[in-house]
Amino acid sequence: MQIDGLALSGPRHILAFDSGIGGLGIARAIQALAPDICIDYLADTAIFPYGEQDDDFLIERIVSLLSQAIRRLQPQVVVVACNTASTLALEALRAAWPDMPFVGCVPPIRWAARITQTKVIGLLATRATVRRPYLSRLHALYAPECTLIAHAAPGLAGCAELAFRGQDVSDSTLLREIEGLFVHPDSNRLDVVGLGCTHYTFVLDRLRALSPPGLTWLDPAPAVAQHTCNLLAHLPQKTHAHPCAWFTALPDDQALFTHLKPYRFSAAVLWEDVNEVEASYYSPVIASP
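== Glutamate racemase ==
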């Protein structure tokens, strides 16, 4: 397969990380570009959602957890498939692991500024992403001529988790989560909204249907997948026999595991049991393709 003019064939091994299932949208986009890539997925479900946690606590936890994962799983590239983790901890991760390529997810402010016709752009994100100085810097650097309507949707990531499991999420619930985008004095000129949380990809079709006509929604997952594959094209092939979905806390219901099957994980495993992986597969084991 050609990735931006580079040949990417044969297996490579990456680790994708998120607080929950949001990063699976990026994993799906990577697999669509390069089906031979082996993906270990680590979800820090024990303290989901990240957007409601203290910054200092999160930085320490993310660096510690990913350091464990890098040592144990030995990926070639780490995809921090979480806006909160990326905006908060990428600098610390790169300092701790200077030889490891990290790919982060950041709010698509630059992309929105390039395509807006009205110069009014929106961002749908967690409260943590909206309040951090990182977002202000992105706005000042890449969209200073644009009005930015940044709306924090505290419950939308949870809605996306339910939707991923096939559970019902009402239109009224989703509308309550996004209505802040449409009550700003300049909302009548809003023409582009970026997703600032990877979870939202799993309700994106619903958001499009519920929003005013003519509004363009931007999902960064394909661009993150493209960048990841570009990095991998420069790295040697590496076989990884049993890529797993790892969870720092396993959910009580089985619905999540049913919906993981298309992602080709060999198993869903409690992260604390990593040293005994062969004995700790959660039932039911997810079949290999």
